[in-house]
Please model this.
Amino acid sequence: MKENCEIIYKSLEKNEKYESTIKEVIKECFKVEKLNDTNLYISITLTTPEEIEKINKQYRNIDSPTDVLSFPMFEKEDLVKFIEKSSEASDVNIQGDILGDIVISIPKVYEQAEEYGHSFERELAYMVVHGFYHLMGYDHINEEDKIIMREKEENILLTLGIKRESSKQESENDLKKIEEEQKNNTKKTSNSNFLDAWKNAIDGIIYATTTQRNVKIQLVIAVLVVIISLFFDLSRAEFLCFLFTIILILFAEMCNTAIETVVDLYVDVYHPKAKIAKDVAAGGVVITAINALIVGYFLFFDKISDIGLNFIKNIVNSPIHLAFTAIVIVVIAILALIAIGRTNKHKVLNHKFMLSGFATLAFAVNTIIWLITDNIVILTLSLVLAILVSASRIEAKVHKVSEVIFSACIGIILILFIYGISLGVMQI
Model:
């Protein structure tokens, strides 16, 4: 009897229990899908989370472990033709034709079996049958395809007598639990009001600045070029064009991150269309970067060619430009500090001094007003507004008093530092 699967162990010891479960499932899959008349076989690699993370990074550009990966060798339409041709042919390839590769993280199987409350054999069987139907060209990107794939998976498991629940009551309880989780997820992914939508948008920005290396690099470059722009006599139109270019690059980078995340969410196998989606999104980032180079050339080439010590005086002649630039730098600094505070590596910031963006920006603006005006009424009003903004964060129980005071100090120090550097340069 021909073998319809090849089992490979990578960083794991051979285990007869694994092999008997896998072979039984694959045998049933081949029978149901009428592949016994073909010479197809499947390569199944059993490995560790560390190894599957490397494979995930290499082939899907996702730097994280997962439970199962599938790498089909046929498109669905081509596979149908191949099966028909194989069933009609009298001679088949002695060496066999590979249907595809499945990679399974065994520790993850144990972990999920315990989490979902069923046996290791059931979880391993599901991983195998799930990977098999991906190799057969089925997917779960949209709801209709998902239903078809799930029905086929459950049909195999039920035929083998592998059930998730041990009783009808447990089945009903699990169904209620799933429905409740779906309701909770719906609440979490929807916006109940404008403030909720605004908060979720800020969370998205924080996520991008925390996890995406390219966004971090773009933000650092943005701060540097904004500081450099202080030393050139840019008109309002030029500065607006310059600022829009920076925002456009960051926007493209975040769109690229969003597209990659959605693709990875719905596609857990290599797919040409998934690659196209990611490549096009990355291409959009490249186009915005090229646009930035063109804008930079037209804005700064003539000014750099005439560079001299007098260009420093442009700062004095453009206090509005300096104020606006300082605010841009403060906003970027706020995002960076919040991102740092939300990581587990910085527990002091996370638990005691989580930055309040509103309080930081309010006192930063207040400090700028104090630096550029002598009107006591304006000075008093700006201070009162900054205090009210900070108090609202405490009243809403978003931040503690210590966090608001910390944020106010950061806003004041940043502005004094930026203006101090500017004045120091002007005196050279």
Summary: Residues 165-172, 307-316 have pLDDT under 50 and may be disordered. The two ends are 88 Å apart (CA to CA). The longest strand covers residues 97-105.
